[in-house]
Write a structure and sequence with these properties.
The chain is mainly alpha-helical and about 120 residues long. Helix content is about 75%, strand content about 5%. The chain has a two-stranded parallel sheet with strand order 1-2. It starts with a helix and ends with a strand.
C-alpha cells in the first residue's frame, strides 16, 4: 500500500499538468474551431462526439487529480517512512519448529526466538 501511495504521489505533477493541458489547450482548440468555423461547415454530431470523448478523458484525469490532492493533503510521506523504520527495528519473529530454530540463527542475522508455546 505504501509503495502505491508514494508512486501515485510522485505522479501528481504530471496529472496536474495533464489536467491543465485539457483545460487550457485541447478544450480551447475545440472552442476556437466552433468560434471561427461557419455553422454550415461543422459536422455537429461528430464535433459533439469528439467533445464528449474529450470531456470524459478530462474527467478521468480530474478525478485522479482530486484523489492525489487528497492523498497529498492527508498523507505525509516522510512521517510515514519514519514510523515504518522505527517500528521495523523492533520486529521479532518466533519460529514454530525446533529444526528451523536450530538452523536459522546460523543462516541469517534476524532476531529469531524459539516459540514458547
Amino acid at each position: 500500500m505504501s509503495s502505491y501511495v508514494l508512486d501515485a504521489l510522485a505522479l501528481k505533477a504530471t496529472v496536474d499538468h495533464d489536467l491543465a493541458y485539457y483545460d487550457r489547450e485541447v478544450t480551447q482548440d475545440y472552442l476556437h474551431a466552433v468560434e471561427f468555423t461557419p455553422l454550415a461547415q461543422i459536422d455537429a454530431p461528430g464535433l459533439i462526439a469528439a467533445l464528449q470523448t474529450l470531456r470524459q478523458r478530462r474527467r478521468q484525469v480530474k478525478d485522479l487529480s482530486l484523489l492525489l490532492n487528497a492523498f497529498d493533503t492527508a498523507f505525509d510521506a516522510n512521517r510515514f517512512w519514519q514510523a515504518l523504520n522505527v517500528s521495523a527495528t523492533g520486529i521479532k519473529y518466533q519460529v514454530r519448529s525446533a529444526q528451523a530454530a536450530a538452523a536459522l540463527p546460523t543462516l541469517c542475522q534476524l532476531p529469531i526466538t524459539p516459540e514458547t508455546d
